[in-house]
Amino acid sequence: MNATKRLIIISLLTAAALIAGTIESRFPLPFPGMRLGIANIFILTALKISGPADAAAVTLMKLALSFLFSGNTAAVLCSAGGHACSLPVIVALYKFFPDDLSIPAISTAGAFAFNFGQIAAIAAALRVPGIFAYLPPLLIAAAVTGFSIGYAAEIITGRLKNIAYGRWI
After folding, report:
1. Which of 43, 60, 142, 147 lies deepest, with the highest CB count within 10 Å?
2. Would you say 17 and 64 are in contact if contact means Cβ atoms under 8 Å apart?
């Protein structure tokens, strides 16, 4: 894939992740801090169609732009802590077990890691280790949302793969 096409794909996936994250933040959820993670569909898509470096680029651009648009330092801190744990997990699983694990399975593992990282970031920032007691309900939710987000990413990458006569974009 040439550099221009790659830049366009990263930009489109970043914009889609940012829009999805912004819309998702408007939904009320049953527990504080629990989100569906819809923006992660586009990070997983970047991982699958163009590799770890582009998945990291989409993640970092989404974090930076989310902060610029919202100014919510606490939310960006939680998200950064989550992605700092999640991104290495999904990249390693995708790289070392490409034929053994599906994208939904990788996404679920990433959701578990994200929740741990977000709780760790809060515990470090507030110096309240008791916040880890909140982890079990988040992990239960992560099992469902992680699998669902991975399944959606698998569908999207399958459709993108068919563009341009069956070749990757």
Report:
1. 43
2. no
Our measurement of the distance from residue 168's CA atom to the centroid of its chain's CA atoms, rounded to an integer in Å, reads 21
Entry pTM: 0.90
The distance of Cα 112 from the centroid of its chain, to the nearest Å, equals 11
Whose CA is closest to 102, among 145, 155, 50, 142?
155
The number of distinct structural domains making up the chain is: 1
Residue of 59, 52, 119 whose CA lies nearest to 83: 59
What's at 163, amino acid-wise?
A: I
Q: Per residue in 130-167, is it b (16+ CB within 10 Å) or e — as a string?
A: ebeebbeebeebbeebbbbbbbbbbebbeeeeeeeeee
- Tell me: the pLDDT tens digits for 3-54? 888 898 899 999 999 999 889 888 887 777 678 899 999 999 999 988 999 9
The CATH code of the domain that includes 65 is: 1.10.1760.20
Task: Please tell me the number of Cα atoms within 13 Å of 90 on its side-chain side.
Answer: 37
Residue where the block lists tokens 């992740």: 17
